[in-house]
Amino acid sequence: MMTTKYDSIIIGGGPAGLAAAIKAKELGLNVLLLENRDVLGGIPLQCLHPGFGLHYFKEDLTGTEFIYRFIDKFQKMGIEYFTNAHLTEIENISDTEKRIKVITSKGLQTFTAKTIIYATGARERHLYEIGVTGKRLPGIFTAGEAQTMMDVYGIMPGKEIVIVGSGDVGLIMARRFALEGATVKAVIELMPFPGGLTRNVVQCLDDFGIPLYLSHAVTRVEGDSTVEKVIISEVNERLEIKEGTEKEIKCDTVVVAAGLVPYIKILEKIGVVKDQATRGPIVNEYLETLIPGVFTAGNALVINDLVDHVVEQGELAAFGASEFVKNEGIPTRKWKRVFRGRNVRLLVPHYVSGENDVIIYARVSRPMNKVKVRFPEINKEVRLPVVKPAEMISIKLKKEEIQRAVDRITMEVLSNE
Amino acid sequence: METKKVVVIGAGVVGSAIARVLSKYQNLEVFLLEKNIDVGWGSSKANSAVIHPGHEDDPSKYPLRSKLCVRGNRLWHSWAEELDVPVKWPGELMLAFSERDVEKFQYYLDLAEKNGVPDVKIVYSDELRELEPNASPDAIAGLWAPTAGLIAPWDAVLGLVENAVDNGVKLFTETEVEDIVIENGIVKGVQTNRGFFEADIVINAAGLYADIISKKAGIDFDITPRRGEYYLLEEDVQPRVKRIVHQVPTEITKGVFISETVEGNILIGPSAENLPLDAKDDVSTTKKYLDYIWESAKRLLAKMPPKSSVIKTFAGLRAEPPSGRWIIEAYDNPKGFINAAGMRSPALTSSPAIAEYIVNELIKNKLGVKLVEKKDWNPYRKGIKKFKLLDDRKKEELIKENPKFGNVLCMCKEVTEAEIIEAIERMKKIGIKTISLDGIKFRTTSMFGWCQGSFCRVRIARVAANYLGMPEWKIFVKDNKSSYGVGYVKTFFKTSQGDGEV
Ligand SMILES: Cc1cc2nc3c(=O)[nH]c(=O)nc-3n(C[C@H](O)[C@H](O)[C@H](O)COP(=O)(O)OP(=O)(O)OC[C@H]3O[C@@H](n4cnc5c(N)ncnc54)[C@H](O)[C@@H]3O)c2cc1C
Ligand SMILES: Cc1cc2nc3c(=O)[nH]c(=O)nc-3n(C[C@H](O)[C@H](O)[C@H](O)COP(=O)(O)OP(=O)(O)OC[C@H]3O[C@@H](n4cnc5c(N)ncnc54)[C@H](O)[C@@H]3O)c2cc1C
Q1: Which among A208, B101, B111, B273 counts the fewest CB atoms within 10 Å?
Q2: What is the longest distance spanned by two Cα atoms in chain A?
Q3: Of the candidates A239, A258, A277, which is a domain's last residue?
Q4: Contact across the interface for B403 and A106, Cβ inside 8 Å
Q5: CATH class of the domain comprising B1-87+149-223+321-383
Q6: H or E element: which one contains A100?
Q7: Which residues lie with the beta carbon below 6 Å from any ligand 2 atom?
Q8: Which residue has the CA at smallest separation from atom 3 of ligand 1?
Q9: Interface residue B91 vs chain A (CB under 8 A)
Q10: CA-based nearest residue to A50, from A197, A263, A160
Q11: CA A153, CA A166: separation in Å to the nearest integer?
């Protein structure tokens, strides 16, 4: 067993992990990155569609093009990494020493580091978590699995597809199937509004004549030895099934795009405290969790819709790690808590100091037009034309603004109409 | 010494246990016939997995059930060790919420005494809470049965079959018995989709289909499918339970159980719902019964785990005989035909004892067959080593020997490429023709965890396909009708036949 001590070990080689590694190296840290799959890149690797990097590169790139810019840079910088490396355990020896265990094909390895940046992405919710009953049949996939099958492994999952969920992921997968010649029978959405961007509804559904059923729930999946049909029903304003509205849609494949959950099992084992709203860790403005020296970024922190935010978080966590290494710990002594106010479903980070400018990432609980985003304790107000639960809002608070607060800052979103 | 041919119909836990016991004798040639592509995929894979203590069945009503359950419970201690099947013995706690419930405890205490179940007692307040800290504060007493255990039921079947095959039993999967051939009141064999199997003794352990088989032999009864649904929760969820916790049974069901499976997940269920006679494969879940289970479970615990920790829901079917009585019998006409039918709960518990009973009481005594034991019968079988459970030194050694141990494919359950390949080899070894992803799942627990395979199924499909020399999309999932994909993305809709081949 070999041991080496690093300034920072980054877990996960998706956009968050790669961006963190590059930034940390630029800041002079000695870093190691570990990726479980046999390739670097994470989710964008399998995204053949454009819509990546509009903010970060000011260019519209496909996921693959986007992530290769990072992979190329990462490799040119000669950053140490392992693929096919599976993290099994983190041991929190002290505030400034973490030991991790990793399984690789070269053997079981232990590494120690002053900091960990945890960027393992998210897991998808599957059918049984969203209350769909019926049989567990072949032909049911999550969007991510279907996408990996098609665009990494070249496997066609089926011919007649029903997609559950109209977030951007569901919409994009609908188009992806249609482009290959499959028949997308329907996209089913529980809410009375589509989850994804209007642009995606037009480009992914309307342009292909794919029907979208709003205020509908998939209640059952039926079939003999493989999926044959789904049963859907209308739902009322309280999202309850309306009796007598049952309808069946014949299909051989069900693709579930019903949201993601931060994949942070191993962090939970060392006692990282979770936020019930984000289902990710509670963090301060450096994206440090409540365990000193353990940072997190990307979908492991909070589910992001834009990879640009993911990269931003990766870089911020790297900055945090470098501050931590320089000062043997984050020097801040006094934190102000950021609270969710009206119409805010979730936000990160949870603690700010006033020593840095901070971006607050947040989601609203319902779609609204012409809103004021208010931070009453610091007299800050930002106006936005539209907000939707599916679109993360990011708002920068200047350090001088944060300094105005005593010990708390609330964020609320109010309609102007 | 004349050799007798025995056909066992159905490789569930009952048929497999029978096959194992039959494999001890040198003058028997044993054929285990299973219609599915793999073994143990009937009632035996979706149940509560409890090794019951045996104090819940009245011997005057259910003589076999009460006797064989207690014996089965005891036998699983040695069988599980010989077969390297995961078991644990957390004990079972029946909770009382009223004085009437407590009164019923006396009935079970009496049964415990009659059936010979040791150490059953009533516990109150502190002792109750110490046994199960998460018992509901409304529970005023508990009936404690320390001999209750939990088993991984599919592992049990795999252990039994691998050991039986090792000792000479011939397994035929994808072999469906269609008729029982009888001449002059004597069994001659069985007709299957794969031809005729000659036999002197035919044992019907066909689970939900045992009524149909039995009718072919002229013995008429109906088996009612009685469905039970479940929730399975994440491994690390809090709060949890230490014991097998359940309520006072009613006439149709033992009620909802909550337990921590041998895998460490929390299992909640089952419901009990009679289905039409022909719904023998309907393992759908329903909102109605799942809601009922969740509500019932809430009553049992002080604090329920969150619903967001549910990783799957599923259902199993009990093979319910008329009036609840197991039909374990040999007949004078047709001679040589034996039923092991209506094997409702606690037949998982009892299966070792049922197998013993059939061999000793029915084959030896009733049919008068003289059996000669093999000298070299091997009681042992080793399960697939779970890499995750090994210590670091052992892990290190294995990776050195075979770097495929260093490739973790299933992240949730930490299952390596080497274990996937071992699973395929095990399937081939017992004669399974269709290698399926579900077969790999039940042998390795890959795709069994938090993400339910959405991360790793495709990677496992590739490993399996490469190993078998076939395209990934062609790998079967649950049976030999449904493949993982339909073809290659870039050719599927472009070839005229659309068969996906380039
Ligand atoms: C269908 C779809 C369409 C999308 N479209 C867009 C779009 O158009 N525009 C856009 O901006 N964004 C889009 N996104 C979102 C974007 O892809 C994600 O926000 C981003 O990939 C999240 O990055 P991440 O690094 O946090 O996680 P991931 O990309 O998931 O990377 C995490 C990495 O960590 C590895 N890992 C996990 N656990 C371990 C462990 N224990 N040990 C080692 N490694 C581990 C994983 O293998 C993975 O490679 C889309 C996402 C999907 C699914
Ligand atoms: C919800 C539920 C909860 C339960 N809980 C418990 C418990 O906690 N403890 C306990 O002890 N017991 C429990 N049981 C009971 C236990 O699961 C069953 O008693 C046991 O699995 C029965 O095994 P079997 O081999 O008879 O049936 P099965 O496992 O159903 O096996 C029968 C096999 O026969 C095959 N077959 C059928 N027809 C043919 C044919 N024509 N040709 C060839 N093969 C055929 C089938 O494919 C199947 O593999 C429970 C059952 C259920 C459903």
Answers
A1: A208
A2: 65
A3: A258
A4: yes
A5: alpha beta
A6: strand A97-104
A7: B 9-15, 33-36, 41-44, 47-50, 52, 176-177, 205-209, 213, 228, 270, 316-318, 343-349
A8: A169
A9: no
A10: A197
A11: 25
Amino acid sitting at position B330 = A
The reply to whether omega before B239 is within 30° of 0 (cis) is: yes
Do the interacting molecules here have an ipTM over 0.85? yes
Q: Which residues of chain A have pLDDT under 70?
A: 1-4, 417
What strands lie across the sheet with A160-164, from one edge to the other?
Answer: A140-142, A253-256, A160-164, A183-188, A212-213
Query: What pLDDT does A176 receive?
Result: 96
Same domain assignment for residues A119 and A149 = no
Q: Which residues line ligand 1 (CB under 6 A)?
A: A 11-17, 34-37, 42-44, 47, 49, 51-52, 86-87, 119-121, 143-144, 147, 168-169, 172-173, 263, 298-300, 304, 306-308, 310; B 411
**Containing structural domain, residue A381:** 335-417
Q: Are residues A97 and A138 in the same domain?
A: no
For domain B92-146+225-317, the CATH architecture is 2-Layer Sandwich (3.30)
Task: Write out chain A residues lying below 8 Å of B486, CB-based.
Answer: 156-159, 252
Dist CA A93 CA A78 (whole Å):
29
Window 354-393 of B, Cβ < 8 Å to A: 392
Q: Residue A2: what pLDDT?
A: 52
User: Which of the listed residues B214, B253, B348, B480 should we mutate to test ligand 2's pocket, taking the one with most ligand atoms within 8 A of CB?
Assistant: B348
Indicate which residues of B carry an active-site annotation.
52
Q: What per-residue confidence (pLDDT) applies to A131? A: 82
Alpha carbon distance, N-terminus to C-terminus of chain B:
58
Residue B442 has pLDDT above 90, yes or no: yes
Question: Could you tell me if B294 lies within 8 Å of chain A, comparing CB atoms?
Answer: no
